[in-house]
Amino acid sequence: MAQNLDHRYTLKPEEKTYLAGLGIKADDLLAKMNARTNIMAAPWARHYSERFGGLRGMLSRPALTMHTTMDSLAHVAHESAYRAMVEGWGCLDRLVQVYVKGVGHCAFTSAQLLATLEAMERWLNTGTRPDASFFPEEKGFDNKFVPPPWPY
Fold first, then answer.
1. Whole-prediction pTM value?
2. Helix (H), strand (E), coil (C) string for the chain
3. Radius of gyration (Cα) for the chain, nearest Å?
4. Based on the number of CB atoms within 10 Å of its own CB, is 77 exposed (0-12), middle (13-18) or buried (19 or more)?
5. CA-CA distance, 32 to 22, in Å (whole number)?
6. What are the residue ranges spanned by the domains of the chain?
């Protein structure tokens, strides 16, 4: 569903300097990337994603998200973007976001998953939004973590 047709890759001078420090020739890399701006997504995949995959932030029911603080696949700043969308719809009372100290994508322990499920079940059954007491630091939750803004 992703494509790069008509895309031009660029880097800021400070990014080129950083890459040079890693032994990477940024201009050579950019030339190779810009020579391959010919990837076209399947139209059916884009249509499906637009129809069913879009997040708008309008919550009609409670939603609880859990994210590791160091996720290289789905950057934790996505949580900031989602929160902003939900806030834009005036639905923050239906959103709880929790963070787990850890590295990796969905690198949750059984205890963390169970705590989150219990919190969500109670919220749905009682209407009482879960607070930090449902996500104890002894189980690896980080109730003080604030994700960086999007875009990072």
1. 0.68
2. CCCCCCCCCCCCHHHHHHHHHCCCCHHHHHHHHHCCCCCCCCHHHHHHHHHHHCCCCCCCCCEEEEEEEECCCCCCHHHHHHHHHHHHCCCHHHEEEEEEEEECCCCCCHHHHHHHHHHHHHHHHHCCCCCHHHCCHHHCECCCCCCCCCCC
3. 20
4. middle
5. 18
6. 1-54, 63-139
- Taking only the tens place, the pLDDT of each residue in 69-104 is 999 889 999 999 999 999 999 999 999 999 999 999
The first and second tokens of residue 6, run together, are: 């008509």
Q: What single letter denotes the amino acid at residue 13? A: P
